Batch of 2 targets.
Target 1
Amino acid sequence: MRFQKYLWRLLPAVALVFTGLIARAQTTSETAIKNIVLVHGGFVDGSGWESVYEILTKKGYHVTVVQNPTISLADDVAVTKRAIDAQDGPVILVGHSYGGVVISSAGDDPKVIGLVYICAFAAETGDSVLSLIKTAPANAPAPPILPPQDGFLFLDRQKFAASFAADVKPENADFMANSQVPWGLAAASAGATAAAWKTKPSWYLLTTEDHMIAPELQRFMSKRAGSKVVEIKGSHAIYISRPDAVASIIELAADGTAAR
């Protein structure tokens, strides 16, 4: 009898604790960052994000893949901002390669609360892809970019796999080489209009076997941005060869910004 009386006295306290746990769980769920916007780089389109998209959507994230024309930086920033505007809440903005210049510029949007650079150009205001490439160490592999054709850039098809996609299946790398998207010289040479990493937290996936953006240049940019860095052995096409690692750092960013 005494135990029953004691138990009845405890029930209100237990109920209060239980209610608090539910409320905390609900708050965590409500504040978790679920909107992810993915921005591709030059020479490719958004289809390369497919595996990353599948991993994240299966985990409950709302993922938008931007299809930038890559003709001018201004247009790409505008297209990316339209994708950001379409989201229903806070956004984690992710950029690969040239996409880093795009997200550095578009990331000043108030909806963007975190940036993720995937072996990307974490640009300072005024930095362009072509200006940053020139700062790479002299002994670093040079991207096999051909002379402009009618104002557009292409990679040497014979050298595409070794420079861009060394750890991608050969047949896939060959397809990528032969389905290149013309990259506007105007986009590659345009300076970033903002450096969103100065006011937003950022994460950086650094690829140590990258022959497009030298790892030393990636270290410089990620350190300058104050990014949380994860290094991984992989090529410039890490988002295709290791989508699990790319999805993982995006989740880190979503969790990290939610905790803030």
Target 2
Amino acid sequence: MSAQCHHHQHRPDHHGASADPRYRRILWVALIVNAAMFALELGAGLRSGSAALLGDAIDFLGDAANYGLSLWVLAMALAWRARAALVKGLSMLGFGVFVIGRVAWGAWQGIPPEPWTMGSVGLLALAANLGVAALLYAWRDGDANMRGVWLCTRNDALGNLAVMGAALGVLGTGTIWPDLAVAAIMAGLAISGGRNVIRLATQELAELANGTTVARPGP
């Protein structure tokens, strides 16, 4: 999941495959797909009452941010890249806290979400992630940034399967608990990942201010 797929590489390959225009076009496609799926899952989660869909929406938001940062990594100064990562981390942390609040509200209300919407949107999200992973497959053995992007997309399919499993659990049990369990896990990962990104970004900004910037390992 994207919450665990953060990479900060301070030595971009200006002459490597990351500058390939085909790779850039694929990243733009991935960015658009993930941003659209974030909006779709956010709306579907609010309409269906599914906290798991809201949690999966965070994943798409994090991925869209990852693709955007990957597109700009060659053009942005290190300080701006760190600031962009800081905004990304704060956004993920905020959405994670929001989903945790939604989990608590759902537990108090006890009203099961609409499982058919959960399952159908989860299936669409799985297709979107698999499609993006297929586009990125040729670059899976590239530099650290490329490997990280492809691995994150591949791993996100697990989150989609979890949402579909939660939908089956809600349908089979008639209770809200499968949805809340998956949502809590996703929110926890988002909060953990957001805190990690914030920590790394603030550390990088401090290093830049002190003139002691070091390279970050890839995933």
